[in-house]
Amino acid sequence: MSLFWIPLLPALGVLAPLLSAKLGRTQCAFITAAAPALSLLLVLLMAPAVFSGETLIVSMNWVPALGMNLSFRMDGLAFLFALLILGIGLLIILYARYYLSAKDSMGKFYAYLILFMTAMLGIVLSNNLIQLWMFWELTSISSFLLISFWHGKTEGRKGARMALTVTGAGGLALLAGLILIGKIVGSYDLEVVISSGDLIRAHGAYPVALVLILLGAFTKSAQFPFHFWLPHAMAAPTPVSAYLHSATMVKAGIFLMARFYPALSGTELWFIIVSMTGLATLLLGAYTALFKHDIKGLLAYSTISHLGLITLLLGMDTQLAAIAAIFHIINHAIFKASLFMAAGIIDHEAGTRDMRRLNGLWKFMPYTATLAMVAAASMAGVPLLNGFLSKEMFFAETLHQHTLGSLSWMIPVLATLAAIFSVAYSLRFIHDVFFNGEPIDLPKTPHEPPRYMKVPVEILVGLCLLVGIFPGLIVGKLLFSASSAVLLGDVPDYSLSIWHGFNLPLTMSIVAMLFGIIIYHNRRKLFKFQSQFPETDAKIVFESIIQCMVRGTQKINAYFENGSLQRYMLMVLLLVIVFAGHPLLDLLQTEGTRTQLPLTSLSIIMATLLVLSAFATVIWHRQRYISLLTLSVVGLIVSVSFSYFSAPDLALTQLSVEVVTITLLMLALFFLPQQTPKESSPGRVARDLGVAAIIGGIIGTINYAIMTRPQLSISEFFLENSKPGGGGTNVVNVILVDFRGFDTFGEILVLGIAALGIFKLINRMKVFMPSGDSKGINWTKDSHPMILRTVSQSLLPLALLVSAYIFLRGHNMPGGGFIAGLITAVAIILQYIAHGVDWIKPRLKINYQWAIAIGVLIAAITGAGSWLFDRPFLTSWFDYFSLPLLGEFELASAIAFDLGVYITVVAATLLILANLGKLTTSHRPKMEDK
Amino acid sequence: MEALFAFCVGILTTCGIFLVLRSRTFPVVVGLTLLSYAVNLFLFSMGRLSVDSAAVIGANSTYADPLPQALVLTAIVIGFAMTAFVVILSMRGRGDLGNDHVDGRIPDHSSLTDKEKS
Known about the structure:
- Chain A contains 39 helices and 4 strands.
- A two-stranded antiparallel sheet of chain A has the order 1-2. Chain A has a two-stranded antiparallel ribbon with strand order 3-4.
- In chain A, helix 33 (731-739) crosses helix 34 and helix 36 (817-835) packs across helix 37.
- The two termini of chain A are 79 Å apart.
- Mean pLDDT of chain A is 89; it is low at 923-930.
- Chain B has a single domain (2-49, 62-101), classed as Orthogonal Bundle (Helix Hairpins), CATH 1.10.287.3510.
- Chain B contains 4 helices and no strands.
- Chain B is elongated.
- At the A-B interface, helix 27, helix 28, helix 29, helix 30 and helix 31 of A face helix 1, helix 2 and helix 3 of B.
- Chain B: Keywords: Cell membrane, Membrane, Transmembrane, Transmembrane helix.
- Chain B: The chain crosses the membrane at residues 6-21, 28-47, 67-89.
């Protein structure tokens, strides 16, 4: 379980600096260091187990359904990285204590730093791909906060944004790649993924997954062509640079490649992409570093070049190369962290990092100069220092390359070339800063830094020497266990000794030294040559690309989202054409095998009428009243056709809904303009007609194709069980109130909600009420004609009786709550029309809102009643009784449910229409100004 | 008969969609109503067409598919509720915005192309 605590302690430790910031700088630093120190102790306690080849795993269920576990894993590779992250992290905490000025918020800085440390630990210890990715993203975010720590500076903000954009975009690619890997393997468990390399490499999606994962690794590790963010991240405080660019952030990408080395490497594709990217980065970084005048800029490009070197090693087709890569990860972390810290000391004590002004600092800070010189010598690959050992291994491996066929000799040559530049820029770092004449116009008089600021540098430089002289003793086991994790235990023999005899790699080293010195000596000519090229500022290029993308998306957005509903509608319909029409292209035969019904003359007449009235509705759509009348004809024919095709319930429903709808539309039309202005251009009319006709054609074709094919229906069940199970012979009604009662319950709820929504819309609506028709003729004063009043009044009881009859017989004959409710509503609406709202109001005191609620409640209680009998919601009950006079009759609980439906339908319909009708009685506003 | 039915559904769809694409609210509401007729007929026909076979047990020898009928029945009622909502919304829109254009504003020059308008 102690494995859980390794990332958890720093996670909790994020709060420590924030809480202790007020105690003083030294106290704050100590309290902050406590959590990582404890974690480091835990890591070290695991050393015996890890060195003996064990893999420690702890895991906890998190979202098991998604294959997500909170799972950590400690093997040689994770151990090495955890050691680097925590060890160098602790040194950085000490260093930052002296580096940060009193103005900087120390608590905030440490909190970001520990957050970043937690994220890095999470990456290296994760045993689940998705979990790994989450920590990966956390490093992007926390590094953004660290780089932009001095957010008052433009470079800080821009550099941080660039780093976030590049690594964040890479992170998305990584996520896609990890998901793909998870799909291929069938598990997100790292343990499983690592051991199923053959399965992954044989899979068709392997190239895609590989490229996506490498995109993530390359962006993070600043590989060409994504290297440009790293130099701009140098705007961060130097402790951040020392941490992010030596042991952590940029090493995360390297770690990822090493972690997935067993699963992904071993193919031609891997070697080509990884080694070529590494080689390009190595050369580019080494060459550019020489020309940087900023010390940190030089170190930044040197970092890029060393990352390229490690990538190149990982891309080589030998196991020894992988071992060399891991060895160089250790060595680079050690000497680069110390160099960044030295650069920070120089900046801190001399006030500038410009090498054109910094000269001859040896006289002012000989001690720091000595430390920096040892570290720089290690970077250059001078013997007896750790950098020499891994560089030697690197040279040896370049000689065994066959990736490029007969051109493979280029790799060692180019590697030597990079090493030459590496020697040259290391030499420049030493000579230009500490010797080379006198300092020019420094803001401060340089002096040695505070005692303890040098301690971290001393420790790291000491390690450079120790590893360089006693490699086997110091890092032998560490290197072996990490290599064994990367190579899955299959570690070949290798030698860590300093002297391998006089061989080709040593010659390459000597050549690099000699030519490095020569190049540095003739640097003025090179500088002159380089100054002919216009220097491109990656920041400007990057910003302009971002701006370009922003403008592009804005343009697309403005095109698609211009606020015009008409436009949106058209786009939706065009998509309908694409998605509904496309499958039809593959349907070879429209007509199916089912026997079709014969045409009858009646149906032809009806269809003609339907088509004509539909056309009339369109043609006269500007004359709104006329189009409403023709619309009602369409509705009538639709209800007749329901009746014709054996759907009496539908016919009754459609008929009564038709009455209500047309009444409603007429009422609404009273408040709306009577005519539609002619607005559409002929082109638009033609376009809309085309779209409409194509969709109509598609829908008609689909409909025909389905209707003429045999049917596989589940309806047999309903037909068989309607009577024995639901106690009714009208199957449609039994389905509504019994089999699918829950659906119906939802429907009446929607109806009620719509009615309430309408009620709120009508409330305080500003309407204009015309005093006459469109021709200016005033309405008749006799708004409630005598004949209508008399007839409707006598009709009311009859209509209510009919609706009661329809309601009661609904279970066995066409009818039921929906239809009865609509008939009742129509009868009452007729009273409103005949007598006016003022007349009805005192006579019909029903609060329709309450009525809706009661209707829904009745239905719900009926449904819930079945719980009392331990049955699921809405189980119905029925039985037969006999009473004198009436004879035998049936009682079913479904009728109570249907009553709820009935009440809801009546109340909702009346709530809508009566409230709309009330608008006519309010005082009339003035004529609308045209 | 099936061909005629499908033809009618197609015509209703065409007319409905053309009206839905108009620029004023009322024709759009009328178009939606036409479209809902078409949709209801379409859904209903998923149970295939049959004559003289209402799904009432004991009334005939064969029965039409009752399931689409039950679905369409509720669809008709909900369709009414939605039509009502839209038409009231269009009234409210006119009251609040001063016009009955679907975009909520009348374009300056209706002869302009869409691109120029945006």
